[in-house]
Amino acid sequence: MDFLNGLMNEITSGSRGVLSFLFVLNILLLILARPLLAIISPDQDNKSKVKIAQALNLLVLVFQIIDFGLGQSVANYDGAYLTNLGMSLMAIYTGVFLYSLSGTYSRKKFGSTRELDSKTIYIETYNSRL
């Protein structure tokens, strides 16, 4: 129980603001993975993408918790190696997310529209690929 209290104090104290922000962001992304991916690719089956996104968020959360545990239990541990690895993974995840979002936006803005089974789909054109 002391571990959880120490973890909550670390997150809410504000002494390490970036880590607190990433912890809360990971939890939000874990919960909102399905709606966010539905925005990016609305007409596709996103089950595997949702599972990958949630697994990545869980991995980063586990890295942060293990890193906090190492900081509490090992006296000489001064590096946040696992947290830095988690932040690197989140940077890659954010880049892939923004790339997919911009692709969807450019397809809607510059692509051609087609009606297929009474649904509007957006098809890539030369302009949307640019």
Keywords:
two-stranded antiparallel sheet; mainly alpha
Number of E-state strands: 2
Per DSSP, the total helix count is 6
Q: What gross morphology would you assign?
A: elongated
Mean pLDDT: 78
Portion in helices: over 70%
Question: Describe it for me?
Answer:
The chain has 130 residues and is mainly α. Helix content is 74%, strand content 8%. It has six helices and two strands. A two-stranded antiparallel sheet has the order 1-2. Strand 1 and strand 2 (119-123) form a beta hairpin. Helix 1 (2-13) packs across helix 2 (17-31) and helix 2 (17-31) runs antiparallel to helix 4. The longest helix has 30 residues, at 81-110. The termini are far apart.
SSE diagram, text form:
Blueprint: H1 2-13, H2 17-31, H3 33-40, H4 47-73, H5 81-110, E1 112-116, E2 119-123, H6 126-129
Antiparallel strand pairs: 1-2
Sum this structure up briefly:
The protein is mainly alpha-helical.
